Amino acid sequence: MELWMTEFQTQNLGLACRIKETLFSGQSDFQEISVVDTVEFGRMLVLDGVFQTSVFDEYIYHEMIAHVPLNVHPRPVNVLVIGGGDGGCVREVVKNPAVQQVDMVEIDGVVVEVSKKYLPEISSAMIDKHPKLNLRIGDGIKHVQETEGQYDVIIVDCSDPIGPGEGLFTAAFYRDVYTALKPDGLFVQQTESPFYHQPLIRKSYQDVNQLFPITRLYLANIPLYPGGLHCFTIGSKKYDPLKTDVTKPSIQSGKYYNPGIQRSCFILPEFIRELLQKD
Ligand code: SAM
Asked: Which of 42, 77, 214, 261 is the S-S candidate for 55 at Cβ 3.0 to 4.6 Å?
């Protein structure tokens, strides 16, 4: 019998994957967690029925959420990652030579343990207890509420704005992120699909823009995510992503990311530019 798993991306649209095997299925204090082995995407982490990451295309999201903001900042020494329980983001962050410490605050310890067991190629920095990595299990919202002027770069590698991730898309959270950053700090958040989450993208952009002197959106093509096009929002106190020197040696190519992408990912199609400009 064929087994399929469908993520309902909107009320009328789903992405269905043929499954070879269910490797893990359980309920944590925060969410329903599964790891399935699929024909097209390989092993995949699923939280509350939403596809989070797959071994097939994870490099795109993780390289783009880590290296783009890190390379906008000239000296990203202290970094905070909120969420990112699969470990792919911190695997990339520790590669940056300027980074000395990355605090990672993930709310769900079960996501971390399951990722270490079933997705070792993604969670390698957590498995190896990388010396730059300081992993804490806790609420990222509370962590930024209690932090002041500490980080050069904050990366919000969150799930959708439902369940434990809901508070990560609010103006109050962005205010706390602003305070947790150093005077020249910047932050990035994954902000979903420009095709299917336009109200959320506009609201996040406007909220960030009210606090930070520089707000920019950038894009990456990610087959697993709704519409295949994903966006990220940067709020920066000082450094403009459009002025990054892409010839600097710290800009190392990955499997998707390279110096050209660092620049071109900020070029927006007209419908997205218009979306951000609307009052
Ligand atoms: N790449 C993924 C995507 O966009 O679908 C997201 C990756 S990661 C698995 C998202 C993580 O954020 C989850 O493990 C979830 O537990 C965590 N998370 C949600 N709310 C959180 C919060 N308030 N504090 C810290 N982590 C949180």
From this structure: 42
Q: What is the CA radius of gyration of the chain?
A: 18
Note the pLDDT tens digit of each residue in 93-137.
999 999 999 999 999 999 999 999 999 999 999 999 999 999 999
Distance from residue 132's CA to the centre of ligand 1 (Å): 21
Q: Is the CB of residue 168 below 6 angstroms from any atom belonging to ligand 1?
A: yes
Indicate the CATH number for domain 58-277. 3.40.50.150
Task: Report pLDDT for 159.
Answer: 85
| Beta strands at 78-83 and 50-54: parallel, antiparallel or unpaired | unpaired
Nearest CA owner, ligand 1 atom 15: 83
CATH topology classification for 3-54: Spermidine Synthase; Chain: A, domain 2 (2.30.140)
Where in the sequence numbering do the catalytic residues fall? Answer: 157
